[in-house]
Amino acid sequence: MSGTGPDLEISRAWLVDPAAGLEGPGEIVVIDGILETVTWLDGDEADSIDADGVVIAPGFIDLHTHLREPGNEDAETVASGLAAAAHGGFTTVCAMPNTTPALDEPGVLAGVRVAADACGSPVELLALGAVTLGRAGEQLAALGELADAGVIGFSDDGSPVRSASILRSALAYAGALGLPVVDHPEETSLTDGAEANDGFVSTVLGLRGWPAAAEELAVGRDIAILADVLRDVPGARLHLTHVSTAAALEVVRRAKAAGLPVTCDVTPHHLALTDEWIAGARRWAWDASGDPWADGAITAGPYDPALRVNPPLRAPDDAAACLAALLDGTADAIATDHAPHTEVDKAVEFGQAANGISGLETALGVVLAAVDAGQLPLLRAIEALTTGPAGLLGARSRRDGSVGLVEGAAADLVVFDRSESWTVTADKLATRGKNTPLLGRELPGRVLVTFANGRIAYEAPDA
Ligand SMILES: [Zn+2]
Q1: If we measure between CA atoms, which residue out of 93, 92, 177, 85 comes closest to residue 131?
Q2: Distance, CA 244 to ligand 1 centroid (Å)?
Q3: Alpha carbon 295 to chain centroid distance?
Q4: Choosing from 156, 198, 337, 412, which is the catalytic residue?
Q5: For residue 168, what are the CA distances in angstroms to 33, 101, 190, 224?
Q6: How confident is the model over 308-348, as pLDDT tens digits?
Q7: Tens digits of per-residue pLDDT, 250-301?
Q8: Is the Cβ–Cβ distance between 239 and 263 less than 8 Å?
């Protein structure tokens, strides 16, 4: 080694470069942290290299990550969250502002950045600012100051922006600043006290129903306000996060077809898990019927609080709609909604449990399960984890323009092996939030190494 950065040479791998729209056999050489060469192989050299072995892709970008610092470091710190990201193949995460205090002024962001610098992780930490002061929904935060401090957008996530009039102002101010409003679409007058997706499973289990209409109405409201704001502020942009229902995705599809600047993401758990899991089924969404009792699918106990999430796990048709939205581009990205919680906040009755699933480290495996089942092409899956979210961040990420396997750039990539699976256990997770319904589950695709910004962010212990 002549320089200071790490070296890596991988021959005979399957390269996925969504920026170029390419995948195929190839090899890479990293010297001193720089991706020096990317070689695509063909003919004899490419013999017997397929997508079922070692895969190299650009580092993933998560648009929706909850770190719990400041305020709830027992659930997650900046350091543990960034370690979880690297373990999951993510090299950029966007932290949501629902910390305590909320990230509603530049001082909170400064503190988060100090924590990120102190932990030394090369994973890029971006942050959203709150839409309203304290996320209380009453008074707009100082969006301009937050923009100057470097936030990448505004969200009251955890909650929707409840007031239509405040959302209107936020879209206008944020749009003038060139930033999106990221809304958590939920009409809360329909979900007050709700516990699980309103449907057959919630009825049988006696859980209070959470209607799909609550999301569809909110998405429709948000888009109507966006269309109105655009007349005065052409730069206004709306991003809808963790859209989970067929009906709401259809509203987004129509708005996009009409040319409105609206984007959305779906989560791994909403595309692969269903409300059947709350009954005790553990089959993937594409194998689900919606009536797990009828076909002997129950293999675990009911009411696992790890399955309580907002929005709730939905019916199989909704999960299928999330996949279809990814396939046709209605959904621009897969975002984890990584929501770590302490055991104390989860080890309670289902309806009392904190909402959220710890998702950074299982996202790849869940998405690969969909790929393995023929539900999603590998290239599209990787796009939704890389170029999709990158397109929404643009120049606000240090990776602007280099999300891809770009020779001469600082290595920012993930290497994973699809011939290996791994079993999710609490001690294998870097996150402090062990709250995932996938504990004990075998997932495909083990991450071997993650490079972020030319440095090794994660390396498997035995790689
Ligand atoms: Zn949310």
Answers
A1: 177
A2: 11
A3: 32
A4: 337
A5: 45, 24, 22, 10
A6: 999 999 999 999 999 999 999 999 999 999 999 999 999 99
A7: 999 999 999 999 999 999 999 999 999 999 999 999 999 999 999 999 999 9
A8: yes
- 333's torsion region: left (phi>0), alpha (psi -120 to 50) or beta? beta
What's the rounded Cα separation, in Å, for the pair 165 and 163? 5
Summary count for the chain: helices (H), strands (E):
14, 16
Secondary structure class of 287 (helix, strand, coil)? helix
Average confidence (pLDDT) over 369-383 = 98
Is residue 217 scored above 70 in pLDDT? yes
The predicted model gives 195-206 an average pLDDT of 98
Q: Which of 103, 440, 71, 436 shows the shortest CA–CA distance to 269?
A: 436
CA distances from residue 448 to 6, 27, 53, 314, 461 in whole angstroms, order as listed? 15, 15, 12, 32, 9
**What integer pLDDT is reported at residue 400 of this predicted model?**
81
Q: In what order do the strands lie in the sheet with 442-452?
A: 34-40, 22-31, 8-17, 54-58, 413-423, 442-452, 455-459
Ligand 1 centroid from CA 38, angstroms? 38
| Cβ 15 vs Cβ 38: under 8 Å | yes
d(CA 364, CA 416) in angstroms, rounded, equals 9
Question: pTM of this prediction?
Answer: 0.97
Q: Ligand 1 center to residue 191 CA distance, Å?
A: 13
- Active-site residue 62, yes or no? no
At which residue do the structure tokens 């923009």 appear?
Answer: 147
Determine the distance separating the centroid of ligand 1 and the alpha carbon of 285, expressed in angstroms: 21
Answer for the pair 65, 97: CB distance below 8 angstroms, yes or no: no
| Residue type at 461 in one-letter notation | P
Instruction: Describe the strand order of the beta sheet including 60-65 as a list of residue ranges.
Output: 60-65, 90-95, 124-127
Q: Distance of CA 428 to CAs 79, 359, 433, Å?
A: 16, 13, 12
Cα 93 off chain centre by: 9
